[in-house]
Amino acid sequence: MGAMDEPRRRLRAALKRAVRTAGVATASVRPDPDFLVIGAKRGGSTSLYFDLLDHPSYVRLYPPPVPGLKDVATKGVHFFDSHHLEGMAWYRSYMPTRFTRSVNTWRHGTPSVVGEASPYYLFHPSAAQRAHEALPDVKVVALLRDPVERTYSHWKERRRAGAEELDFVAALDAEPGRLAGERERLLADPAYRSYAWEQQSYLTQSRYAEALRPWLERYGRDRVLVAASEDYYADPLPVLRTIDDFLGVPPRDTSTGAVRNQAPGAPLEPEVRARLQAAFVDANRDLEELLGQRLPWTTT
Fold first, then answer.
1. Which of 58, 63, 105, 206 is 20 to 30 A from 118, alpha carbon to alpha carbon?
2. Do the beta carbons of residue 118 and residue 76 sit within 8 Å?
3. Buried/exposed 260-297: b ≥16 CB within 10 Å, e otherwise
């Protein structure tokens, strides 16, 4: 970092602290969110969330993009997974005020909704319980991707970031040992954070039924909308309009069509693909039974 960058970095950090302090101080006038996008990681939730924000009824989190502070809207707060001990005032500090919502409704003549997208919520073993205790009436959206592709994309992301030293097959083989005991530690200690459980759970995070069941048990099927990434990327508008209807806002006419956070890389080798497909047969069947709907990546 150059000498000219350090003062800018310090100013940026000071502005962030001031904004968060102001948000906490005004938490009582910041209503809870209307919806949560809970994942899946590497499933397209970033593209989906920013596509949702293109509709005038969706109000951005606080603060909105501000020159010198942040270039893009905040997507996720990660309160119900990694920052739960910060407390509800801290969580609400990210929400727009009641006045901001009202102005948005007046300006556009439509209902206003607010939500955040934190993909780790789907997989963190305490997130569903924490969310339901704090937000019993929130609506939940999950965007799921072919588990084979999600697993490989997750590894590619870590590899590209220099955070995974093992090749893909070796990482799959190491996964059970890396995750051993981590779920239990997370459940036992609210302050505990597990890098392995969040970032090295390539195959385990793709067993969606296990992760979704706690959300469905608490919120019910009518408050949890599950869509497929393949459907969203093939034709975004119908999926977005389904979510608009789910959240009670007028259906949109367009989609941005923007694809975010792509992870390029070599194609998956056929024998490794076959191994993963076999590994997910039971998990895919459980998911379809849980949801009562077919999914694009299943073949039986």
1. 105
2. yes
3. eeeeeeeebeeeeeebbeebbeebbebbeebbeeebeb
pLDDT tens digits for range 57-69: 999 999 988 776 6
d(CA 125, CA 229): 23
**Cis amide prior to 40 (ω within 30 degrees):** yes
What pTM, to 2 d.p., does this model score?
A: 0.93
Residue with tokens 């036992």: 188
Residue 59 region, left (φ>0) first, then alpha (ψ -120 to 50), else beta? beta
Contact indicator for 132, 224 with CB cutoff of 8 Å: no
Measured at the CA of 276, the angle between CA 271 and CA 279, to 5 degrees, comes to 130
Q: SS3 string of 122-186?
A: HCCCCHHHHHHHHCCCCEEEEEECCHHHHHHHHHHHHHHCCCCCCCHHHHHHHHHHHHCCHHHHH
Structure tokens at 284: 């895919």
